[in-house]
């Protein structure tokens, strides 16, 4: 199983380059840049890294066709791919956060819209968008020539939380990117992706299965939990009750859901203090939905990651937060060696 790294959206492109160069030295498979609404552009931010490295994969996570038409996504993707000698990739999804901030609407048929996006991206990448694409949601009204793109073809992933999206992406994408799914329920996700894969024109084609997993392992264990609590509002599909029930009793689930705004407040004030919810319960959520703890907890997290591999994942993306170079050093020295074949 390959290990990827996801970086914060507020890093300067020079910082991304520095971290990416070190990641390549450690044997990290790829770097993903986060696509947020008021931050560095995720495609442009990767250019210095593309020019300074030769092996590591790179791409933005995730780009929504509701904020950027598929034709413009593929323009940016192929440009980055040429500048990196064929190492670019992209993950596309509905993009709820950016869409909400910009007040943009989404169609009723979200799965259809993402499928059409992947079809347009794939056709352009393969330089076969030589006819008008007349989709129900997206259109390309003239034939497009992408013969200028000479590098190896970039990978196109779809992002998914729900099973219908996973099935569709398993059928049409190069990879499926599962959102924040703990190993206890990874089997059902893999099963649905495989249903889609079985319906491909070429079901023997290797399809990558990746997932998001947050990393809060630090030398200072107290700081690790504070950082992890700060980010809880965005974990487990925004603390979805169905996922909470795996680890919490009904009363605890109700308390968490009723106080969701307190988790959001803890993110925006950067405190990690969630009002009205016991710290012990918050810490349990950290341990359930992320890798949180001290250096002594790394072996436990490696064993958890092996559960993803056993289930059928081919890649795992570890999301870094504060002090990313320090976190990368820990991952590079302790985690990467555990997954070298």
Give the CA-based shape: globular
Number of helices: 15
- Overall mean pLDDT stands at 96
Distance between the termini: 8 Å
Helix/sheet category: alpha/beta
Order of helices and strands: EHEHEHEHHEEEHEHEHHHHHHEHEH
From the alpha carbons, calculate the radius of gyration and give it in angstroms: 20 Å
When the domains are counted, the total is 2
Strand content: 15-25%
Low-confidence stretches: none
The strand count comes to 11
CATH class of the largest domain: Alpha Beta
CATH superfamily of the largest domain: Luciferase-like domain
Helix amount = 40-55%
Give the strand line-up of the largest sheet.
1-2-3-4-7-8-9-11
Q: Report the major sheet.
A: 8 strands, parallel, barrel
Which architecture of the largest domain does the CATH hierarchy give at level 2? Alpha-Beta Barrel
Fold-level CATH name of the largest domain:
TIM Barrel
